[in-house]
């Protein structure tokens, strides 16, 4: 990957984690977490140079989080991806141009201008002189911008003589925009001098946004990230968001040496969001030592939400070790939300053993809420054994709400061409609402299957409202297969309301065969 793309990408990561001095507005922490996670996923694809997937992820991010403080970042990188994919330079130029118009205050405007200058000069050399005019205004920059442009040029040529000049410009500048760009440049030098300067900024800089930028520049060091330094920041920095940046960086570094500190922060940290960030970082580390650490958090953290996050982390660990732990939580935990979360994690593990545990809970639990959660969890299992238990629950006469929920769960487990269980529920269920739910499932099956099944039900159904519902459903299939059934009802049924419904259903079908049937109705004496 070119250094410039790395440089820009890490600026994105900083903004993702902070929503600081360049980000508009103040957002709720929960929303911040959601868009941060989505943005981080897109960023990773960009850093992996998976351009097509990155483009899709960035587009999805913009669509789902149009009000996010990171939407300008996503739009900028969408243009960058187009350039990486070597799309037409005129279209890439226009993409950057539109980005600057839409987000004039974005921290990426300067990067977009730089890219437009480069692309515009290339196009001008090809005889497209209008691009020279378009980029001319970009050269009217401040004195500091001119110095910084010179530093970029020296850095791109690998000239370490520029190092002292960069340090001096950082120390002397009062413009945080310029200082932030210098931090990005320092990352690309990848020398011990640059690393020490970044550490100095991360420790001593008064502006927390710049400290966070320095932390992420250090985390992305091409050599192994300095874990001890990141641990120092995670333990002691006064700014919670800088500490969070260090925690996420520790997760990205995937060094098992960080596990004890991350565990202690998750357990003892007063700030719940920082404790959750420590759990997220633990989740990213691939080591057998993670499971004991997560279990300690699960048992002893002072924050219920942190314990719940630790519980969800178990889903990605070894199922054979985790399943007994989850079962113990389900059986002994006092917090009902934790018990329910454990059920869902058990289902997501997806082993035969975990499915058997859920089935046992369905059959033996006295808690209706737990049975309902286990029922929904079985939807993710999807086995024949799970389908049988759900079917039995739908037929049970003990709990109407649970039986109705079982019908909908069974619909997601059983294939569309297998109506038998729903027919039995329709015929045998104790509660009318459960029978009606089974009928709706049968109505939603494929047209040919629906006509056959609904026709069979009509032969024996006595309840008028259900019969009318069946007639309308036959009309909604639009199938000529339903015409003979509806014609027979329209001509011969003893209930005139149902006969009228059959006529309406024939009109709904509207085919030549249906019109012939309607004519026969008119001919009846």
What can you tell me about this protein's structure?
The protein has 525 residues and is mainly alpha-helical. Among the domains are: 1-140, Serine Threonine Protein Phosphatase 5, Tetratricopeptide repeat (Alpha Horseshoe), CATH 1.25.40; 447-525, Leucine-rich Repeat Variant. The chain contains 31 helices and no strands. The protein has helices at 3-18, 29-47, 51-64, 71-84, 89-102, 109-125, 130-136, 143-156, 162-172, 176-189, 192-204, 208-219, 227-236, 240-253, 259-268, 272-283, 290-300, 304-313, 319-332, 336-349, 352-364, 368-381, 384-395, 400-413, 420-428, 432-443, 447-460, 464-476, 483-492, 496-509, 512-523. The longest helix is centred in the N-terminal third of the chain and has 19 residues, at 29-47.
CATH superfamily membership of one domain: Tetratricopeptide repeat domain
Biggest sheet, in brief? none
How many strand elements? 0
Could you name the CATH topology of one domain? Serine Threonine Protein Phosphatase 5, Tetratricopeptide repeat
Number of helices: 31
Percentage of helical residues? over 70%
The first-to-last residue Cα distance is 84 Å
Q: What integer is the average pLDDT?
A: 80
């Amino acid at each position: 990957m070119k250094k410039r793309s790395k440089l820009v990408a890490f600026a994105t990561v900083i903004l993702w984690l902070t929503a600081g001095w360049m980000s508009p507005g103040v957002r709720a922490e929960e929303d911040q977490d959601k868009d941060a996670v989505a943005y981080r996923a897109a960023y990773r694809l960009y850093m992996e140079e998976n351009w097509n997937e990155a483009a899709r992820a960035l587009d999805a991010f913009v669509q789902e989080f149009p009000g996010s403080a990171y939407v300008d970042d996503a739009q900028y990188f969408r243009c960058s991806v187009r350039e990486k994919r070597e799309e037409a330079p005129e279209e890439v130029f226009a993409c950057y141009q539109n980005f600057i118009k839409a987000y004039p205050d974005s921290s990426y405007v300067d990067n977009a201008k730089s890219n437009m200058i480069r692309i515009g000069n290339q196009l001008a050399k090809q005889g497209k002189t209008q691009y020279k005019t378009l980029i001319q205004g970009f050269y009217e920059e401040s004195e500091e911008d001119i110095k910084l442009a010179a530093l970029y040029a020296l850095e791109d040529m690998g000239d370490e003589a520029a190092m002292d000049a960069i340090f001096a410009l950082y120390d002397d500048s009062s413009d945080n925009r310029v200082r932030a760009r210098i931090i990005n440049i320092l990352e690309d030098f990848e020398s011990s001098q640059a690393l020490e300067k970044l550490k100095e900024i991360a420790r001593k800089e008064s502006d927390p946004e710049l400290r966070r930028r320095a932390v992420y520049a250090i985390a992305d060091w091409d050599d192994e990230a300095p874990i001890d330094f990141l641990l120092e920041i995670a333990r002691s920095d006064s700014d919670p968001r800088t500490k969070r940046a260090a925690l996420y960086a520790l997760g990205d570094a995937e060094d098992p040496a960080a596990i004890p500190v991350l565990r202690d922060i998750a357990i003892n940290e007063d700030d719940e969001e920082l404790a959750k960030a420590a759990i997220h970082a633990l989740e990213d580390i691939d080591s057998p030592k993670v499971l004991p650490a997560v279990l300690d958090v699960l048992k002893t953290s002072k924050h219920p939400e942190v314990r719940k996050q630790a519980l969800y982390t178990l889903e990605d660990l070894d199922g054979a070790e985790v399943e007994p732990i989850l079962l113990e939580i389900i059986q002994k935990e006092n917090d009902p939300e934790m018990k329910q979360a454990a059920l869902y994690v058990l289902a997501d593990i997806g082993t035969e053993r975990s499915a058997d545990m859920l089935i046992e809970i369905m059959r033996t639990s006295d808690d209706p809420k737990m049975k309902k959660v286990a029922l929904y969890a079985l939807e993710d299992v999807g086995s024949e054994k799970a389908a049988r238990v759900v079917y039995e629950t739908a037929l049970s006469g003990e709990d109407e709400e649970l039986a109705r929920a079982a019908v909908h769960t069974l619909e997601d487990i059983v294939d569309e061409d297998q109506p038998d269980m729903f027919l039995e529920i329709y015929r045998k269920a104790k509660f009318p609402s459960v029978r009606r739910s089974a009928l709706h499932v049968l109505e939603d099956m494929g047209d040919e299957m629906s006509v056959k099944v609904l026709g069979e039900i009509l032969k024996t159904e006595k309840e008028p409202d259900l019969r009318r519902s069946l007639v309308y459903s036959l009309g909604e299939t639009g199938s000529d297969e339903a015409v003979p059934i509806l014609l027979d009802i329209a001509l011969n049924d003893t209930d005139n309301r149902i006969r009228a419904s059959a006529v309406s259903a024939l009109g709904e079908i509207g085919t030549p065969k249906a019109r012939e049937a309607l004519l026969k109705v008119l001919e009846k004496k």
